[in-house]
Input
Amino acid sequence: MITAPGRRIPDTGLRRGKPRLAIGLLALAAVLAARPAAPAAPVATAAEAAPVATAAEAAPARPIPPERLRSGLDFAAPGIRALQADDFANPGMLWVERGERLWGESAGAAAVSCASCHGKAADAMKGVAARYPRIDPESGALRDLPAQINACRVRRQQAPAWAAETEPLLAMTVYVATQSRGMPLSVSIDGPARPHFEAGRAIYERRMGQMNLACLNCHGERWGGRLLAETISQGHGTAYPIYRLDWQTVGSLERRFRSCLSGIRAEMWPYGSSEVIDLELYLAWRAQGLPIETPGVRK
Ligand code: HEC
Ligand code: HEC
Output
């Protein structure tokens, strides 16, 4: 996030959002908020405001037509793109290695590893991340990937759940998601997932925080535009968990939400709350078709 010089406060996201020194952003976002009808930046049309019709009758119209979908990487500086593209330089690859190690380690009262049940991750986990968040058929609950991993920890390994945003959970999430690299996102929003999708969409479009801005105002209506030092992307979660230079570590999609929420001075939802997972489902559907890039690298 943007802070005044010398006052760089690490955005751990684990504390409740304390007001930050981001006067420049405050002023800029206030300007954005004050001109809701202002013309969008050159590359962005009002795609989300005027969605095109889709083939399926019951399916909601795509906010960004598939041919205009663009990864966040396209908006990143060349140095960042080079880092992500090179597995030897990409710092996120360290988390892949850590996850691989954990995959084979026995844990919990059951004294079994992920591998004991699932075998090779390259086979068992291929394509899995592309379907998440997903309704768990047994409990009926919507789970994102970290929640599913923890469900296996608790129920199958009889081990304590890994806390949100901790190294083992991030490493395992990165490791599992990496098995789907290059595969297009394709979540289901049918049946029991539908109310979650609708709830996620409502959150996405709701103005929030002291700046009274919605996710939609930036990532739907102004992508391609500049916000201080940053270029606003379409706001997809396809590269997550990412290595973010600003964090100096890997962080989850939820932590990225927290950066955005703190930027607009909005309350944060507790980690793993239903609002977050509903929003993740909406985001994944909105990005439907874009390939998974985990582990991504961002500024
Ligand atoms: C004031 C404008 C603004 C608002 C409002 C905002 N964001 Fe962001 N968001 C940004 C900026 C700037 C970035 C960093 C550059 C980028 O990747 O777009 C970002 C990054 C992201 C990313 C990471 C994209 C990537 O490829 O790494 C996601 C996902 C995201 N935002 C989702 C959201 C969600 C969900 C909301 C609503 C809860 C939201 N944002 C609200 C400005 C905003
Ligand atoms: C005792 C056996 C067992 C262990 C140990 C276990 N799992 Fe599972 N896991 C299952 C079963 C059963 C399912 C549900 C059936 C399915 O979807 O494959 C499942 C489902 C999953 C899924 C969802 C797959 C999908 O297609 O949606 C993921 C991801 C997963 N496990 C990850 C892990 C990870 C990571 C570990 C180690 C931390 C682990 N599991 C440990 C048995 C196990």
Q: What stands out?
A: Residues 1-24, 34-47, 49-57 have pLDDT under 50 and may be disordered. Residues 219 and 234 are 5 Å apart (CA to CA). The radius of gyration is 19 Å. The pocket of heme C (ligand 2) is lined by residues 112, 114, 116-118, 128, 148-149, 152-153, 156-157, 172, 176 (CB under 6 Å).
